[in-house]
Amino acid sequence: MANHIPALLGETLRGLNFKKNSLVIDATADGGGHARAILAELGPAGKLIGIDWDREMLERLREELKGERRLKLFHLNFSEIEKVAGSRRPDAILFDLGLSSLQLSASGRGFSFQTDEPLEMTFDRETHPNVRELLRKISERELEDIIRTYGEEPFAQKISRAIVAARGRKEISSAKELTEIIAKVRPRLGRLHPATKTFQALRIYVNQELENLKKGLGGAWKIIKPGGRIAVISYHSLEDRIVKNFCREKGRAGKPIRPSREEILKNPRARSAKLRIIEKK
Q1: Mean pLDDT of 133-161
Q2: At 147, is the pLDDT very low, low, confident or very high (cuts 50, 70, 90)?
């Protein structure tokens, strides 16, 4: 299984600016890249709460870090972040949005167009409809709207028409099948794979990612203590727009921090990352 390299790690830790005895919430614990680094900075009285919606990733992390008494893990969507706070308010909260290398390479749920995995794309297997179920019955017009809105895909009409035509012949059940359908009608422009934007759109839609992000940011703002900081790493314009608008609403909009050229060479997945940090006065 591929190792997950967290983006903007040093910048995130410096930006969160927590002390040794702090309570920190990692709202996207995932493969534990940021969690391990946070634990290394916390002292014996510090505490880290990890949240993740992907039960398999959470169990993997729980096994790897068992015996770590400063860590408590919760299987939750970060839209429910207020549930984990308890009586002690956190000093710092981190959201690292999007997919990890681990989920892309071997989740068994078809997140990547490069796999022949079942076409689910849900972070929690209990989420329905998953992408396979969605594509069985959705109208061509609704599908086009999803691909255009959540993928910002200029070929949304052609792609939705091709998907509806293909499902009339046979159920689309794997990531590979969907990729092949898209590649026939969507030209490759630059280095972006023809299926990238459609896969992004379908994943965002079935997981309600943008709605959950708005709720999660609102919940984090309610529970974080005055002087505490929230750091958010986003990977595409739809996410970043929500984070930027949230910062503006709180009167603290600033320029995002981007990865250095050096980091991008070491970790190409980091190239689209943007880090925004907001402090509650």
Answers
A1: 98
A2: very high
Rounded CA-CA distance 90/48 in Å is 9
Q: Are 143 and 160 in contact (CB under 8 A)?
A: yes
**DSSP, residue by residue, the chain:** -PPP--TTHHHHHHHH---TT-EEEETT-TTSHHHHHHHHHS-TT-EEEEEES-HHHHHHHHHHTTT-TTEEEEE--GGGGGGG-TTSPPSEEEEE-S--HHHHHH-SS--STTS--BS---SSTT-SS-HHHHHHH--HHHHHHHHHHHH--TTHHHHHHHHHHHHHHS---BHHHHHHHHHHHS--BTTB-TTHHHHHHHHHHHHTHHHHHHHHHHHHHHHSPTT-EEEEEE-SHHHHHHHHHHHHHTT---PPB---HHHHHH-GGGGG-EEEEEE--
Full set of structural domains in the chain with CATH: 9-102+209-279 (3.40.50.150), 109-207 (1.10.150.170)
Half-sphere exposure of 123 (CA within 13 A, CB side): 25
pLDDT, one tens digit per residue, over 74-106 is 999 999 999 998 888 999 999 999 777 767 766
